[in-house]
Amino acid sequence: MLTGLGWLALEVKYLDRAASFYRQFLDLDTVRENEREVALAAGDTDLVLRRPGGVPRGDQFGSARSLYFYDTEGNCVEIGQRGGDGSGITGVFEVVLEVADLEAAESFYADLGFEVVDRGRDRKRVRLTAGPFDFELWEPHLGLADARGGVHVDVGFETDDPEAAADRVAERTRGRERLSDGSVRVTDPDGHSLTFR
Fold it and tell me: Domain range holding 14?
């Protein structure tokens, strides 16, 4: 039988700023503190403020150049350019998804035809490619520009056979739906929507 709440942990990007806010405006006392988290006393419950963890990725991008910015909804967007041809935005070449289990997510996307091209050294991440675009799968952490991987992302894939693509991962999806235009939408184990059309 449940008898109470021991703690509530919230992920925060800026630990010092978040802790200062709760201390100043809610007058909460510090229970414990380290470089990754601060626990504050909220009655008998610890309110834990925690960074997602990990060291941000280095800055070696080969021939690619990137600009990071936050949109009006707080999404961290990276606009990148590969090679030197053209100007302006020429397409999307990378999508970053936050996942709970990196190995399981890697296996799921490998079944869709993605191949591993890079693994993180200092944190849990893997880069996969499927031709003209890459997927990065991240366990929760902050990357460059304090960005996080996308949570509950909706991605559309072009394919010759939507049903066959969905069948390749059918046993591990949370749901499957056939759309009126012949597309098939599935939900991956982390809640991301994938539509094959």
Answer: 7-50
How many CB atoms are closer than 10 A to CB 79? 12
pTM of the model: 0.67
User: What confidence tens digit (pLDDT) does each residue in 44-75 have?
Assistant: 888 888 887 533 332 535 566 666 667 666 77
Residue type, 129: T
Q: Classify the phi-psi angles of 103: left when phi > 0, otherwise alpha if psi is within -120 to 50, otherwise beta.
A: alpha
How far, CA to CA in Å, does 145 sit from each of 102, 105, 157, 160? 22, 24, 28, 37
Residue 193 belongs to some domain of the structure: yes
How many folded domains does the chain comprise?
Answer: 3
CATH of the domain at 170: 3.10.180.10
